[in-house]
Design brief:
By secondary structure, the protein is an alpha+beta fold. Helix content is 20%, strand content 48%. The protein has two helices and nine strands, in the order αββαβββββββ. It has helices at residues 2-18, 49-56; strands spanning 33-42, 45-48, 63-67, 72-77, 80-89, 92-96, 102-108, 111-116, 119-125.
Length: 126
């Protein structure tokens, strides 16, 4: 049951992130580029995205994001697509939706980490 709850939280967090958009740009920011979700940390467990999605029955999904030098981003997570704008203030890349809700991704050691509702999603550059 805990695995199903964690899967539900992850999917909901990804949907929120996929619908995000924000303002500002910095074409020299290290976050510019293509990113792939590679691991998940939730409920005291860490696993690869492939393992997690396989357990959840969602193994053939794209989980990527592109942060563009023009201040925009696009992403596809668990079949949901989203676009928007991003803002860089080292070491944080902030994504904010039209309603004013924001998601922060910390850039550290060449990775982007987003904590959404207690689920840590870790992205690595492609």
């Amino acid at each position: 049951m805990k695995k199903r709850i964690a899967a539900f939280v992850l999917v909901m967090a990804m949907v929120v992130l996929a619908l995000a958009g924000c303002g500002g740009k910095d074409s020299s920011a290290p976050v510019v580029g293509k990113w792939k979700l590679t691991s998940i940390e939730a409920a005291g467990m860490t696993m690869s995205v492939d393992e997690f999605l396989s357990m959840s029955g969602m193994s053939d999904t794209t989980n990527e994001m592109e942060i563009k030098s023009n201040g925009k981003f696009s992403m596809e997570m668990v079949g949901e697509k989203g676009t928007g704008k991003w803002e860089w203030k080292e070491p944080i890349c902030t994504l904010t939706d039209e309603a004013g809700d924001s998601v922060e991704a910390e850039y550290k050691d060449g990775k982007l980490s987003m904590d959404l509702e207690g689920v840590l999603m870790i992205f690595e550059k492609k």
